[in-house]
Each structure stands twice: as structure tokens, then as C-alpha cells.
UniProtKB/TrEMBL annotation:
GO biological process: xenobiotic detoxification by transmembrane export across the plasma membrane
Subcellular locations according to the entry: Cell inner membrane; Cell membrane
SUPFAM superfamilies in alphabetical order: MFS general substrate transporter
InterPro entries assigned: Efflux_drug-R_Bcr/CmlA, MFS, MFS_dom, MFS_trans_sf
Top-rank taxon, per record: Bacteria
Keywords, in A-Z order: Cell inner membrane, Cell membrane, Membrane, Transmembrane, Transmembrane helix, Transport
Name of protein: Bcr/CflA family efflux transporter
Species whose genome carries this gene: Pararhizobium antarcticum
Pfam families: MFS_1
Family named by the database record: Belongs to the major facilitator superfamily. Bcr/CmlA family.
Domain Major facilitator superfamily (MFS) profile: 6-389
Length: 399
């Protein structure tokens, strides 16, 4: 595969998760109404159930891919994901939908863990950060277009058709994996699938200061993003009355992250992961503080909300790929298990924190702004622990 083809396929694998969340945002209200859920905050569980399933299953798919290679577990996960999407079309109750979304998340975990493992198999250091940035840039196209696709589907069909589209996308990606993706884990680098081996690999990950605390920092920053995703429809439609323009504004925010990821891919080789991501994290916390203070003085006008949140999302696009690359860098010898531990922590931690922010929605943007500031401040604390109190300085020329 060429580098462009490789990046595109890895982005499609990671985009499955963004598609599974963002395409249904315009349909949450109809899903709730169709299945008898009156509380708007409870409709957010459609997203949370998926994220929790995906988070826990990553602990399984990482060691599995270290033992059997990347392709077979990846295809198994895609099969689970696609079958559950089709099953949801016929689900009769909200509890049944949540159960299937949980299992669908389990299948999707393979795409999250194994795509990162494959990138680490092929690249390292700043090259990995560059490739992850390009993957994230393409991946961010999905949040740009997914709500619009969901809105378009809702104009011509019921919410069930959204899950048919999701299943078809999974089938397309699985076909490309079968036909185009080579196995990237050599036989001699595979680890035995035993309890002792798995526990040993987990110990390697959890006792590495750099990997552990960059993972925790990423989880808290992801928590703020999930908090917005959970309450995006309530904020943009309920507070600001955007109606059918909701997907367009949501796309603009995702576009900011895509631009940031592309910027990171162009600059990371010259300036390094730490200078870019540490500066972005400080900027993220500063913008969140301004947003929080502004929200305390009354309703935040739409133009200011868009400016502050859009700026925060640009910073997020510089944080995500670099933090992931720095967490994975010292763990190439256990890439699958490392990716699973990192992914589990980031997804479950982010999902729980995001759910807490979403459930705190009170008709204003204050809970979201407060959540952004608190989580970014804690994330900065984790980075300081990882770097022994010293920001911006690379540990080696490749970082």
C-alpha cells in the first residue's frame, strides 16, 4: 500500500466510531420518541452505551491482536459491529437498543485498538505523530459530514435507516481490509495469549510513567469532547434554536479539528510533539476558563460560543495525535496490548466524564464550560507528572 492508501484505510477504521456516534445525533429525538423515552438527557445513553462497550472490549482485542496478528481480530470486530447495526433496525425497546449498542461498541473496539497498533507497527517517533495527524485529519471529515448524512436520512426515512447505512459502511471497510491490508505483525513478534503474558504486558504499560500519564491526560481531554457530543443537540438546537442548521455548525467544529490535525502533520517534524501539544493544552485550558467565566455572567451569545468552542477544538486537534503518539512510543514491543490499555482508559474515562457533563445539562452552557476547564486543568497536571514538571522540552531528538 502507498502511504496515502494506508492513511486513508486507517482513517476509515477509526472513522467507524465517529460515524456510529455523530450520524445519529439528528435522530436522537425521534429515537427517544419512537421508543417512549421522554427525558432528553436519557437519550444520551445511546452514545454512552456504545462508548462503554467499546472501552471495555479494547482490553480483549489488544492482547488478541498481539497473539493472532492484526487482520483476523479486526475482521471479527467488524463482523460483530455490522451484525449489531442490522439487528438494531428491528429492536422493539429502548433497553434492547442500548444492549445492542453496547455489543456494537464491543465490535468497534477492534477498529480503535488495532488501527493504532498497525500504525505503531509501521511507524515510530515523529513519523508516527505525523501519520496519526493525517489519520485524524481524514477521520475528522466524518464528524463534518455524518450529522448531515443523518439529517438527510431523516428527511426520507425513519431513524432505523441510519443503522442500515452504518452496517453498509462496515461491510465496505471489511472488504478493503481483506483485499488491501497486509498483516503488519511478524510471526516472531507475536506474544503468547496466556494470562501470565497478558498481565506482564499490562504491567509494562501501567508502570511506564510517560505512557500512563499521557493516557490519563488524553482521557480527561476526551471527556470534555464527549461531554459536548452528549449535549450537542440540546445546546445547538435547544438553546440556540439552530434546527436544521445544527449539522452545519457541528461540521464546522469538526472541521476545526481536521485543520488542526493537518497543521500538526506539517509542523510536528520541525517543532516536535511536546512543543505543539503542551502549548495547545495550555491554550485549551485558557479558552475553557474564559468560556466558563463568560457563562457565569448570563447567556453566552451564539457567536461567542462558536468562537470559544471552535478555538478549543482547534487546540484539541493538536493534543490528540501527539499525546497518543507519546503514550505509544515506548511500548512498541507490546503495541497491541498497549493500545488496548490506552484505548480502554481513554474511552471509558472519557465516556464516564462526558456522561457526567452531559447529565449535568441544565438548559445553559455553564456545566459544559465548567467541565471543560476542570478536565483540562487536571489533564495539565497529568502531563506535568509525565514530564517531571518540565514542559515543551523533547526527551530525545525524535520527540
Amino acid at each position: 500500500m502507498s502511504k496515502a492508501q494506508f492513511v486513508a484505510l486507517m482513517a476509515m477504521l477509526m472513522a467507524i466510531n465517529a460515524l456510529s456516534i455523530d450520524i445519529m445525533l439528528p435522530g436522537l429525538q425521534e429515537i427517544g420518541a419512537s421508543l417512549g423515552i421522554a427525558d432528553e438527557n436519557h437519550r444520551q445513553y445511546v452514545i454512552t452505551a456504545y462508548l462503554i462497550g467499546m472501552g471495555f472490549a479494547q482490553l480483549f482485542f489488544g492482547p488478541l491482536s498481539d497473539r493472532f496478528g492484526r487482520k483476523l481480530p479486526l475482521l471479527g470486530g467488524l463482523a460483530i459491529y455490522g451484525v449489531c447495526a442490522l439487528a438494531i433496525v428491528f429492536v422493539p425497546s429502548f433497553s434492547g437498543l442500548l444492549a445492542l449498542r453496547f455489543v456494537q461498541g464491543i465490535g468497534a473496539a477492534a477498529t480503535r485498538v488495532i488501527s493504532v497498533s498497525i500504525v505503531r507497527d509501521v511507524y515510530g517517533g515523529r513519523q508516527m505523530a505525523e501519520v496519526m495527524s493525517l489519520v485524524m485529519m481524514v477521520f475528522m471529515v466524518v464528524p463534518v459530514i455524518a450529522p448531515s448524512i443523518g439529517q438527510l436520512i431523516m428527511l426520507f426515512a425513519e431513524w432505523h435507516m441510519i443503522f442500515v447505512v452504518i452496517a453498509l459502511f462496515a461491510a465496505l471497510v471489511a472488504t478493503l481490509v481483506i483485499l488491501r491490508l497486509p498483516e503488519t505483525l511478524a510471526e516472531e513478534n507475536r506474544r503468547p495469549f496466556t494470562a501470565t503474558s497478558i498481565i506482564g504486558a499490562f504491567r509494562i504499560v501501567l508502570t511506564n510513567r510517560m505512557a500512563l500519564f499521557y493516557t490519563l491526560a488524553t482521557a480527561f481531554i476526551f471527556g470534555s469532547l464527549f461531554g459536548f457530543i452528549n449535549s450537542a443537540q440540546q445546546i445547538l438546537v435547544g438553546i440556540y434554536g439552530l434546527g436544521v442548521w445544527f449539522p452545519l455548525v457541528f461540521a464546522g467544529f469538526a472541521g476545526m479539528m481536521a485543520v488542526a490535525s493537518f497543521t500538526n502533520s506539517r509542523m510536528v517534524k520541525r517543532y516536535g510533539m511536546r512543543r505543539l501539544s503542551h502549548g495547545a493544552l495550555i491554550g485549551f485550558a485558557t479558552v475553557s476558563l474564559i468560556w466558563m467565566v463568560a457563562s457565569l455572567f448570563g447567556p453566552v451569545p451564539l457567536w461567542l460560543f462558536v468562537l470559544l468552542y471552535g478555538t478549543a477544538m482547534f487546540q484539541f486537534g493538536l493534543i490528540g495525535p501527539n499525546f497518543n503518539a507519546m503514550a505509544m512510543e515506548p511500548l512498541g514491543h507490546v503495541a497491541g496490548t498497549a493500545s488496548s490499555v490506552l484505548g480502554f482508559t481513554q474511552t471509558i474515562g472519557g465516556a464516564v466524564l462526558g456522561a457526567a457533563i452531559g447529565q449535568a445539562f441544565d438548559g445553559t452552557v455553564t456545566p459544559l464550560a465548567l467541565g471543560f476547564f476542570i478536565l483540562s486543568a487536571i489533564g495539565l497536571g497529568f502531563v506535568l507528572i509525565a514530564e517531571k514538571g518540565k514542559l515543551f522540552s523533547p526527551n530525545n531528538p525524535a520527540s
